[in-house]
Design goal:
mainly alpha; about 90 residues; elongated; about 60% helix; single chain
Length: about 90
């Protein structure tokens, strides 16, 4: 007479593996779904400050020159630029 555990041996191991994979997959799915539910409180800027920041920007800003020289890897002889070298800027960055 056969023992019940002998007849279910390989199938039982496969079922245990399946349950382990399913449990792991459900744990990952639950983690991803719960992480997606994180609430971020928006902090809106007052419109006046946004407009002031935008209007305060100029193309002759020394910070812009420093940024361009650093990323183009050469110094700019004339500043502010009289024309925008778009190809140099797009290929240099």
């Amino acid at each position: 007479m056969r023992n019940c555990s002998e007849s279910r041996g390989p199938a039982s191991n496969e079922m245990k593996q399946f349950k382990a994979y399913a449990t792991a997959a459900l744990a990952v799915l639950a983690t991803v779904l719960l992480a997606g539910c994180a609430h971020v409180r928006s902090q809106s800027k007052p419109a006046a400050r946004t407009v002031a920041n935008f209007n305060g920007r100029t193309l002759d800003d020394p910070g812009l020159k420093q940024f361009l020289e650093q990323h183009l890897r050469h110094s700019l002889e004339t500043w502010p630029l009289q024309r925008c070298p778009i190809l140099e800027l797009t290929h240099g960055l």
